[in-house]
Amino acid sequence: MVDITAPQASLSADDLRKRITTNLQEKQGVEPEEATVADVYAATAEVVRDYLSVSSLDAKKRMVKGHVKAVGYLSAEFLIGRQLSNALLNAGLTQQFEGAVAELGFKAKDVIATEPEPGLGNGGLGRLAACYVDSLASLGVPAFGYGIQYRYGIFRQEFDDEGKQVEKPDYWLSEGNPWGHEDVVRSQRVSFGGSVVDGDDGARVWKPAWSVRAVPVDYLVPGYDSGRVNTLRLWTAKSYDEFDLATFNRSDYMGAVIPQVNAENITKVLYPEDSTPQGKRLRLEQQYFFVSASIHDAIRTFYPGEKNPDLTTFPDKICFQLNDTHPVIGIPELMRVLMDEHGMDWDAAWNITRKTFNYTCHTLLPEALEVWPAKLIGELLPRHLEIIRSINAQFVQELESKGIDDDVIDRMRIATDGPDGQVRMAYLATVGGSYVNGVAALHSQLLKDVTLKDFSSVYPNKFTNVTNGVTPRRFIKLANPRLSDLITEGLGTDKWLHDLDELEGLVPLADDSSFVERFRKVKEANKQDFAKYASDKFDFSINTNTMFDSMIKRLHEYKRQSLKILAVIAEYAAIKDGSVNVDEILPRSVFFGAKAAPGYAMAKLTIQLINNVARVVNNDPAVKGKLAVYFPWNYNIDLAEHLIPATELDEQISQAGKEASGTGNMKFALNGSLTVGTLDGANVEIRERVGAENFFLFGMQVEDVEKLYADGYDPMEYVHADPRLHHAIDLVASGAFSHGDRDTYAALTSDWLTHDYFMTMADFTAYMDIQKEIEATYRNPDEWTRKAILNVAHSGFFSSDRSIEDYLTRIWHTEPQR
Any transmembrane segments, and where (predicted)? Predict the structure, then answer.
């Protein structure tokens, strides 16, 4: 008998149907028999949200009145995905929903598929934030997620006839938003520009030039089997003076709405292109806008109605986690609020601020650590620049008192002087908070040893590690229901959904021939499902009797999509020139999923190459049935939830020492994919836990990379050493994938041959060699499946619940609220 512990609400299917019917009639204005699937979706979403609101109000009340410190998770991204299925699962309403909509004449999956996906994130950073707010609620931790309600969010990706990426606006709010509750009453004023003057009492007074209204849009975050409903509060910008009637009456219709346009631009698009001064300015406006609103909101929440609150207790009420450098401007903002608005002296304000903030660093690339021109901060936030310079001066004085060398102090300055003066946000976060954490064991070590080495030498106790995690509720239970059911049956319980370590119980079943066969059947059925999904959505015709080999991640040179596509080209060339026996080739379907930043030319050129390799390979009869390449456009959570359960080989091939962690690698392992990868990011921990024999390792390690940099790296040495690589690059340069045009990929091939900073050429041979081991294993289905089961069984550590528990003990020093 299977022990089922999943939450089950007392609300019956018939009661839910009645509530949906009432909403259809009173809110949607239609009778049930006239309703469309979109009507039923909107009605259901509102009913579920109303159902959760009771618990949400109770959670807020207990949070404010209780003695457990809350968490404020500050993030520019929250890639939350579709909400309905997750809310139903966590609230214990899934079965009732299926019954209710069936009585109304609809299929549950069609209603769920109607929901637009919120474009509130770009990739791993935003998905991690979404997993964390889910786990905070599931563990019963009082928390707010704080971010931005982007009107268009990340762009919608399309490909033109030449295979180039085209960015289109994502109108995800065009059909309304039943999940987000706009709470105008709790708006906050956020100001910009102006000047700073001396007040009558000698204090510095900021006189802003203009202000906008930050309006909160609240999303409810129900925990799984916890009874707790937390809040994700996203801010949208509105003008205080939306319309100038006098200007309008002069027939200047556009001029009449300029204040509204300027305000709303702040929250229109995620990561506006920042290669121009205007783009940089808008990004900084976005960052300050949401952290200022969030800090004021937290004060209002925890000191309701108090005109002169005792903010010395603020760090006991809430701590803020800075998810990357985007919210770091919150440090000088809290200092400003405490000193300028609440009359504290510098030392008291600084003591509170350092106790309140903690910083998660998500990169090892120096260029990815945000640096702002001091001039821009001075123009937009003049009081904050003063405070930052004061923090810097105090910090330099501290370093001098410790006897730190002048050249080291210069390297560590938060703010630099001169006409080109800069503010280094990662340094500000490190000095202005209690803890700095990396997101995988290797990443955290390199953060201490390389990226922030000077700071870890001065503040060794500030640095710690919290390895990333993913929620098993969305990425197994919802995304892969067949596997979820098999796991529950195999373990005899579904407790693994809130204690992923329970997956260890699958280890003996890896040697059970019956379970192995059933596991393989699950993967085969998922491949069939994905093929149908891809046919319907992208018009792809996929052969499911092939290995499904996937590389899905943001397009960046260090992630090395170039390595994968060069390997595909080499395989294609070998088939064409007869250097391999086509009958002995293991058939593969290779999937790419990625967006490139609009201003990242080399990444966009790589996308164009992948698409044109796909065009050539997929239309060549010589390789039919043996090799195919697919690049579904606009990669998002919906696509991930279909492709990850169907994938058999996961590509994690970034240059060693460059990937912070990754969470895609965790999702794939938990869904029964095997990994081919370098020792980078969380790959290290995945390999340690699933077993080296169940992970396909290749390539240089961090120390090899550093030595090669030091000795002088010449990519041509590796190109000449491997004829397969030489031939693949020659094909690209010859115009074979650009209709004969030799100039199309000239920038790409030139970089490979002369620069190749992330050493794709150096790792190519090792990558090709590991394919022999991969293919030999795949030809033994029982052995491959056994390894896949062990990947699932040993991946319990990579739950976001475990990550949050680590944050609670290592950084936040708080606990669930019982």
Answer: none
d(CA 753, CA 750): 5
Active-site residue list? 362, 553-554, 559, 663, 667
Average confidence (pLDDT) over 691-701: 98
**Percentage above 70 pLDDT, the chain:** 99
Task: Decide if pLDDT at 249 tops 80.
Answer: no
Mean pLDDT over all residues of the chain? 95
Report whether pLDDT(253) > 70: no
| Structure tokens that stand for 749 in this block | 């091939």
Give the Cα separation of 583 and 320 in Å (integer): 59
Q: How far apart, in whole angstroms, are the C-alpha atoms of residue 238 and residue 255?
A: 16
Residue 2: which pLDDT band, with cuts at 50, 70 and 90? confident
pLDDT for the residue numbered 416: 96
- Strands (DSSP E) contained in 338-493 are 357-360, 371-373, 422-424, 436-438, 463-465
Asked if 702 contacts 657 with a C-beta cutoff of 8 angstroms, the reply is yes
Q: Model pTM?
A: 0.97
Query: Phi then psi for 146, rounded to 5 degrees?
Result: -125, 130
CB 716 within 8 A of CB 753: yes
Q: What pLDDT is attached to residue 687?
A: 98
Question: How far is it, in rounded angstroms, from Cα 465 to Cα 807?
Answer: 9
- HSE at residue 591, side-chain half, CA atoms within 13 A, is 31
Mean pLDDT lowest among 251-260, 487-496, 544-553, 800-809: 251-260
How far apart CA 18 and CA 24 sit, in angstroms, is 10
Give the containing element (helix H, strand E) for 458: helix 453-458
* Amino acid (one-letter) located at 738: S
- From CA 502, how far away is CA 499, in angstroms rounded? 6
Query: Which residues have CB under 8 Å from 200's CB, separation 6+?
Result: none
The pLDDT of 54-67, averaged and rounded, is 94
Of 576, 591, 510, nearest to 544 by C-alpha is 591
Residue 783 confidence (pLDDT):
98
Q: Which residues pair with 181 in a beta bridge?
A: 218
Q: How far is CA 787 from the centre of its chain?
A: 28
**Full set of structural domains in the chain with CATH:** 67-81+117-468+805-812 (3.40.50.2000), 472-798 (3.40.50.2000)
Helices and strands (H and E) in the chain: how many: 33, 22
Tell me if 324 sits within 8 A of 362, measured CB to CB: yes
**726 backbone dihedrals φ, ψ, rounded to 5°:** -55, -45
Residue 341 to residues 205, 299, 610, Cα–Cα distance (Å): 10, 12, 55
pLDDT of residue 243: 65
